[in-house]
Amino acid sequence: MKTLTRTILLLFPLFFFQSSFAQSPGRLYNFEEIGWTINLPYEFKMIDSVENERKMNRGKKHIEDANGIIAEISDTKTLISATKNTYNYFNATLTPFNPATDGDFRKVEKTVRDLMYKTIVQRMPDATIDSSTTTILLDGLAFAKFGITVSIKDKFTIHMLLLTKLYRGYDFGISYLYLDEETKSQIEGMLSRSQFAK
Q: What is the C-alpha to C-alpha distance for residues 70 and 73, in angstroms, rounded to an integer?
């Protein structure tokens, strides 16, 4: 299921807190496929493509094992993948999506949310887990926003967010994970200032 890519990309930082970094050539990134420009905060370092693929494959296995499915991620393109202080994470992906052959996008979004929740519950049975669904605007474009908060024995809390939109023929997914309010402000500020060519 190619729709599981966002789930995989969101979940793998939760289970693998190791990173390999590549040099970042600049802070401003422009993605022509969707006309999106974003300014990555200085504290975030790009994850190199080899490490990103390795982690995606491990995350894929967790999803498959928890849900008894086979996930297809070969059509997915990672636009950007970055981390701050190892534990805070930001990622954006594109997967071609045609409603005529791939189905109703809203139903696919719900399936992804359900799989994410089920996988986290199975992988972290001692954690307290809460979720929410809402809508957010980025440069005037509405994205579905799904959040999961995982509290682990009152020691620390992980916040995972997934933004999704069917846009220009793509399942456009933005996922991020943060442990502190400063990082939340950085990521959400970066997203709110990002721009789309219209």
A: 10
CB atoms within 10 A of CB 119: 24
**Burial code of 123-145, b = ≥16 C-beta within 10 A, e = fewer?**
bbeeeeeeeeeeebebeeeebbb
pTM: 0.81
Burial of 68 (0-12, 13-18, 19+ CB in 10 A): exposed
pLDDT at 23: 36
| Residue 4: DSSP 8-state | G
Looking at residue 21, its pLDDT comes to 37
Mean pLDDT by 10 residues, the chain (198 residues): 52 44 58 95 83 65 63 77 89 93 92 86 88 96 95 87 95 94 93 92
Q: Which residues lie closer than 8 Å to 85 by C-beta, 6 or more apart?
A: 43, 183
In angstroms, the Cα distances linking 88 to 95, 107, 109 are 23, 29, 24
What is the side-by-side order of every strand in the sheet holding 45-46?
45-46, 77-84, 88-96, 170-178, 156-167, 141-152, 128-138
Instruction: Give me the residue spans of the domains in the chain.
Output: 2-196
In the numeric block, the tokens 């995606």 are attached to 56
Class of domain 2-196: alpha beta
pLDDT of residue 18: 37
Residue 39 bridge partners (DSSP) = 28
